[in-house]
Every structure is written in C-alpha cells, then in structure tokens.
Amino acid sequence: MDDPGLERKLFGLTFKNPVGLAAGFDKNAQLYNELSDFGFGFVEIGTLTPKPQDGNPKKRLFRLKDDRAIINRMGFNNLGVEEAVKNLRKSHRVLIGGNIGKNKLTPNTLAVKDYLICLEALFNDVDYFVVNVSSPNTPGLRELQDKEPLTALLKALKTENSVLAKKRKTQERPILLKIAPDLTDDQLLDIIEIVEVTAIDGVIATNTTISRDNLKSEPRLVNENGGVSGKPLTKRSTEVIRFLSEKSNKAFPIIGVGGIHSPKDALEKLEAGADLIQLWTGFVYEGPGLIKRINKAILNKNNH
C-alpha cells in the first residue's frame, strides 16, 4: 500500500509503511523483492554469520497450532554473509535490514570480530543493521546481552560504522539492537543506558521467548527446546516496548515484534511506543493479507 499517511521517517530512512518482515524468514537474502510485493515496508534479512553454518539438527521448527505459536531452534542456519552479499546485488524494491550474529563455534571472547566481519561485508548493501544477541538457539549468545560485553560490542560496531562511512564516502548505517523478551526490568533499564552510552539508533523488541507459560498445546510439542514466537508473546513484547518507551522518555526508536496476528495487535504495539512493527509468525498463520489489513487500520486511526 502506497499512501503518504503510512510513511515513517526514522534514523534517516523513509519507510513507505511501518509494517516489516522480521529476520529469520529470508535468511540468505534470496526473496526480499518477492516478499516486498506482499506490501511490506521493509524486509530484514539474516541472521547472517561470517561463515556458512548448518544450524541445529532437524527437526527444529514446530507449529503449536492450539497456541498460534511456533517453536524454533534453527541456530543461525545460513549460507554465510558473502553469499547474502551476492544476493543483495540485485536492485532492491524495498528497504533492507541486515541482521547479524556470530558463528556457533566462535567463543564469546571473539564475538566482536564476527559482528565486525558481517558489518563490513554488508555495509554497502543494507539500509540498517540489527545486532542479534538475543536468539536462544546459539549456546551462550544471550550472555552478550550483559552490560559490559554488550557495551563493548556496540561501541566497536559504531566505530567501524563511522570508519566505513568515511572510507566509502557515504552515510553511516543505523545500528539497532534486538533484545529478548525474557529480560528483567533491571536488565531493560541497563539496555536503555547502553543505548544512550553507545548512541546506537534504536531497539527491536523482542526476539523469541524461552518461557513456556500458559501454553495449551500438547506437552511433547511444548517441551521441545527453542524459542517460542507468535500469540503467546503478544502481551510480553508489548510490555517490553511500553517499558522501554516510558522509562527512556521515548529517547530512541523502537521496532515492535512479537505475536502480531491482527490489526488490533499491531495498533497496541504502536500505542505502547513502537515506531515500526515486524511480522513473522503472524504472517505464517494469518497469511499475507494481514499486512494490508494492518496498514488500513493504521490509516483509519490516523484519519479519526
């Protein structure tokens, strides 16, 4: 849908509408143009790692139909950042975010290097970056969300971003941080402080959850390892958005993701303080018509 009422200007980019596709769907940047034809305002590719990796053994994705949810433990399966760069050399019909991570075998002490490799490789071909330290499916990854390692990682990326922009005579790319829904209030306050100290451009809230509260599906599915996405996440991810928005006094943009299955879910995220939203599991369950329905609801709300 092209309507000036849907346009959003954030961190120097113009989004034709605020409904994007979250990372993990087009992992290797193979389908972004086709996906944009469904009406997405932006598409996030990845998560990408420096070297190709298979991810976790299959089966690793389970539908919890009774919960309108999915459990996945993909484990950053991707063909490596260089392959994605080749795929991104087509012309883009849509804004692209590059979601970056570390290889499973890279110890956390060397994680910064993996993120820097991905930043440099993708720099010319994506519109913004997302630092993924919140997937539950790479052992030890979430430890990088702790204050000290996270501050160090983001500062290193900010510095490299500025170096690359000067070298290539272009703008710096916006850098966002994707966080887990399982953080405590104190940890979320740390995130607000880290965003301020490192001067990154925003936060994506939230990734999948390790919580299994109130799931109705059969135990053999519920007990599968991995992150839960979809409807069970709706409330928690909105709470995280509201907390970040209120406690930071709207100091930075937030992209809201987690359990958006209807226009109502989307509007709740926006009212809680999200500037843009992303779909993944809702897109799987509700189909591509959801994008248009959400955009229509946003326009209706704007016009009243």
Summarize the structure.
The protein is built from ten helices and 13 strands. It is α/β, with parallel strands linked by helices.
Task: Summarize the structure in words.
This protein has a single domain (4-55, 75-211, 230-302), classed as TIM Barrel (Alpha-Beta Barrel). 49% of the residues are buried. The chain has ten helices and 13 strands. The chain has 304 residues and is α/β, with parallel strands linked by helices. Strand 5 and strand 6 form a beta hairpin. The protein has helices at residues 32-36, 81-87, 111-122, 147-167, 185-198, 219-222, 234-247, 263-272, 281-286, 289-302; strands at 8-10, 13-15, 19-26, 42-48, 61-64, 69-72, 95-100, 128-132, 175-179, 202-205, 227-230, 254-257, 276-279. Strands 3-4-7-8-9-10-12-13 form an eight-stranded parallel β-barrel, surrounded by five helices. Its EC number is 1.3.5.2. One of its GO terms (molecular function) is dihydroorotate dehydrogenase (quinone) activity. It is a peripheral membrane protein. Monomer.
